[in-house]
Amino acid sequence: MLEPLLCDLSVPGRVGFRFPEPDVPLAEIPENLVRQNLPLPELYEVDVVRHFTRLSQLNHSIDTGFYPLGSCTMKYNPKLNEETARLPGFAHLHPMQPIETVQGSLALMYELQEWLKEIGGFAGVTLQPAAGAQGELTGILLIRAYFEARGETQRVKILVPDSAHGTNPATSAMSGMHVIELKSDDRGNVDLQALKAECDETLAGLMLTNPNTLGLFDENVEEVIRMVHEAGGLVYGDGANMNALLGIVRPGDLGFDVLHYNLHKTFSTPHGGGGPGSGPVGVAAHLVDFLPAPVVTILEAGDEGMELPPLYGLESPPKSIGRVKSFHGHFGMMVRAYTYMRVYGKEGLRKVSEYAVLNANYLLARLRAHYHVPYDRVCMHEFVAEGRWPDAPDIHALDISKRLMDYGFHPPTNYFPLIVHESLMIEPTETESKQVLDEFAEAMIKIASEAHSEPELLKNAPQITPVGRLDEVKAAKELVLCCAVGAYNR
Amino acid sequence: MNFPTELKYTQNDEWIRIEGNVGTVGITDYAQDQLSDIVYVEIVVSEGEKVNQGDTCATVESVKAAADVYMPVSGVISAVNEELADTPENINSDPYGVAWMVKIELSDTSELDDLMDSGSYQQLVESKD
Questions:
Q1: What CATH number has the domain spanning A353-475?
Q2: Helical (H) or strand (E) element with B121
């Protein structure tokens, strides 16, 4: 093992931290509840710091290299965000403080809600959901509550295109809905015939990822939404791919009824090991009353010149589905996203999306002669290539991904979406320079040539990483990690 | 790739072997090849259960994807392969043999007309590639 476990590093008698003398009387713990044996590792502080620092250096990260993981928007996370999130006025709050003492933080949350409404074209926003998948769950629960309030309980069917994010069917199933998969047509759009066949009185809604996981903007999106609405259903937007749309298209204007944002993708808060996530949900006017409680609101208006600021507070929407997260969600992520939006401003955010789309199209243009791109039209912020060649039958997308690690790059998302064979889903984001994009393109082109001339280079990759090719079958089948148990039995 | 001629096939890459009024069902060689190393299988129907054509009868998970297996025909489940859960890798090594999933007593043999013979299925697979 590259780095021993803390249990194995333990030396009896080492102490890293001493509790201060208590300033309150110690509670008596009944004898039968006191543990005699608690073999926690014994280490100096420096042992622990070195252990975790070494572990952190074994991983690829956005701070160490390019990370084109499709649909994950692994953009650079500006360090200024970390600075604002650590301001004592934000960092040292308690969520149970009286609202009069947290007006600044409530003002930040209120403004963030307002900006997300503006960016998405929605009438209301909740900041509570802890991540994208919880945002989805919140959105579908809102749709369910809406139909229950209207007495339309026969609407139990949620349509999910085969180019949607993988969490969408799971969300619908978890909400107690029936999931129906919709096929894509040969241009990567929702198949309108297949949609029409499902538009009946049991339709609750459609979950649409737009741009979809092929990185394509659905050319018929307005028609798709019109058909669902005419059948009495609502349309949920998976906003994981919002990085393509900022300031250009507002989902609410297209007719989406609900959409979740990923602050940890589009708005640069850390994820992929650095989280937590944050998945606010925006809704159209007819769903505002159902939003999770509480939302931040203005209790008393201030005066015009802002001599007297407004009094911010919390309010429960009248038909609220209730809380979806303890307290107010991941507040630290809201501070980071707010900082990011303030730094870029309206025009800057539009540029973010324009460059994200430009970078993806640049890579697509450089790679299409070397990799087959089955749905090859102007892409949005990402595109999907095939990781296979008829004249190199033993090479798979997985081998290409592993070989990229030898060139110092994180692999793209592979084997998703399922509608492309051996798929490689590539999302460069706007934060990469042309130099980095060119280096990546050169590596991909070189790998395409190695696949034909020296396939063993791909089959044996990665070579330069701390560990080589992992045994994925063993990892998927042997789910019990016993090392901790062994240490405790010592 | 193997396409035994005595079997019938579905669009979704299931096969069925008919013996009298009983059909044995599994997934095809092409399906296991697309999924790659299979690490988990769960049969979600039980003996005696009535099922319709197109119902989900099993879920298969590999290192790269998860997929549902659908019933090629309607009828009553007469047996399920209990051993498969402990040996999912058999689907990769012997998809038409030990890795059968369920047996079914057919309620409507005319449904067999909806299925493909090995030649048409092979053509379909080749067009998918």
A1: 3.90.1150.10
A2: helix B118-128
Whether A80-342 and A353-475 share one fold: the answer is no
Complex ipTM tops 0.85: no
Q: Which residues of B touch A472 (CB under 8 A)?
A: 37, 63
Q: What is the pLDDT of residues A436-451, one digit of tens each?
A: 999 999 999 999 999 9
Maximum distance among all alpha carbons in chain B?
38
Q: Which residues of B touch A396 (CB under 8 A)?
A: 36
What is the pTM for the complete model shown?
0.90
Both tokens of A476, joined, read 């998927």
B63 to A473: CB separation less than 8 angstroms, yes or no: yes
Q: Find the radius of gyration of the CA atoms of chain A.
A: 25
For A37-83, the pLDDT digits (tens) are 888 899 999 999 999 999 989 989 999 999 999 999 999 999 999 99
In degrees and rounded to multiples of 5, residue A357 shows phi and psi of -70, -40
CA distance A224 to A214: 17
| Interface contact A473-B37, CB threshold 8 A | yes
**Assigned architecture for domain A80-342:** 3-Layer(aba) Sandwich (3.40)
Closest partner CB to B65 (pick from A396, A418, A473):
A418
Q: Give chain A positions within 8 Å (CB) of B63.
A: 472-473, 476
Q: Do A477 and B63 touch (CB under 8 A)?
A: no
Domains delineated in chain B: 8-110 (2.40.50.100)
Q: How many CB pairs under 8 A join A and B?
A: 19
